[in-house]
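Action item from last meeting closed. Structure (165 res):
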């Protein structure tokens, strides 16, 4: 190959390269979508697909089982649950003078009292879930039933009965 042909070849290659780069640049500036024109992911506008007909949720809370009053075995775990969920307010003995309860005026209800002990298991369960004193603030949402899992409630209430004066 003589030098002239080689030079021409180089010139053609440079020209082609320049054209190519120019084309890419034009392509970039005209075809890359701008941020403001991109489709946005509107999660709040997305529609949740409906569950198929007849579907049941698998996370239904387990029904609360109240142990047989003659069975003393659940009381040990009931005492532990009482320590988790109730003792801070209602106190070790149920008198309402727990480390948190002490700061209440009046102090939380005396769980040893005849009035509380006369309630049925279901009434006590309802008092945990909906009772006065168990809301976030005055007339706020009741929250205690979200804390106490249903499988703890039975032994817990059985233990509360042992606090009777
Ligand atoms: C954040 C503090 C707090 C915790 C935790 C708490 N209580 Fe109470 N509880 C109260 C207060 C305050 C009252 C209402 C006192 C009143 O109105 O006389 C109350 C009232 C009650 C009542 C009577 C409710 C009514 O409607 O008559 C029962 C029963 C009771 N509590 C049981 C429990 C049990 C069982 C637990 C544990 C699962 C528990 N509480 C946890 C503060 C608490």
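Sequence:
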């Amino acid at each position: 190959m003589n030098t002239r042909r080689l030079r021409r070849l180089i010139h053609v290659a440079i020209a082609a390269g320049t054209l190519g780069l120019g084309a890419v640049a034009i392509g970039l500036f005209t075809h890359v979508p701008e941020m403001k024109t991109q489709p946005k992911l509107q999660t709040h506008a997305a529609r949740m697909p409906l569950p198929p007909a007849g579907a049941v949720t698998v996370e239904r809370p387990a029904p609360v089982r109240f142990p047989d009053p003659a069975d003393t075995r659940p009381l040990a775990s009931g005492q532990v649950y009482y320590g988790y969920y109730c003792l801070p307010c209602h106190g070790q003995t149920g008198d309402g003078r727990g480390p948190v309860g002490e700061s209440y005026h009046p102090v939380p209800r005396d769980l040893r009292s005849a009035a509380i002990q006369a309630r049925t298991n279901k009434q006590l369960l309802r008092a945990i879930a909906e009772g006065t004193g168990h809301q976030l603030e005055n007339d706020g949402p009741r929250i205690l039933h979200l804390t106490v899992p249903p499988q703890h409630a039975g032994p817990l209430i059985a233990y509360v009965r042992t606090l009777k004066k």
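Note appended to the action item: The chain has two domains: 3-35, 74-161.
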